[in-house]
Hints:
By secondary structure, the protein is mainly α. It has helices spanning about 15-55, 60-105, 110-120, 125-130, 135-150, 155-165, 175-215, 220-235.
Amino acid sequence: MAIKKAPPTLTKPWVDVTSIKASLTRARELHSENAKRISEMNVRVAKRREELEATLYDLTPSQRSQVVGRALGGLRADLKRSSLDARTTRLREIDALRRSVEDAGTHYNSSIQMLMRDSLGSERRSRLIQQLEHAGKVELASLAALAVSTKDRELGAVLASQVGRMPHSERPFSPHELADRLVGDDYRAVQAAIMEVSELAQRAVLDDRAFEAGRASAEGNIGIALRARDRAALNAPEIRDDNEEN
Length: 246
């Protein structure tokens, strides 16, 4: 699994799936805006370099390099100073989004965790618990197949809970496999969203550092590439608009 699992905790804030999706959308906007503004400033510097190079052809290479260096240094300093507040605001906001979704990750550690929470407190689930209290292995296995084929999460949650209390050797099916078949796509979508927000925040920081330094750096790029590879390996869909996880 690509994302490190957080240990159980009673202090992490609850964030629903809809909010995680909104955080991802906002993180994408902030990263895009940050990259666009930095690109615009770099274009200004490059254009100014071209202008200077075209007018200083009569100087020696050494003299031309000194003049161009001083002029571009002054321009870059002005750009950094005038854009500092806006860049800082964007970086702080995207980092806040990163911290929020990463903290919320403890509530989305597994598909079975999400399944067990999905219909918690429903009257039908309470009735199913009573009806299946003394069900045998064959009946449980048959109902598990029915839950998967009908996408019945309430039934699946009851079955997973009941089978989860049985010794491993006596279980008629894997509760984890059942949960994956019922909510696996939703689980992977949330994991991918959390990972992408973290990637975008890291990319924004690296882009800003490169702009401040006046040159690109390989620092952190390997980590980002590994994150992107792991996220792609999930083959996760986007979070559904009708997701009602709460």
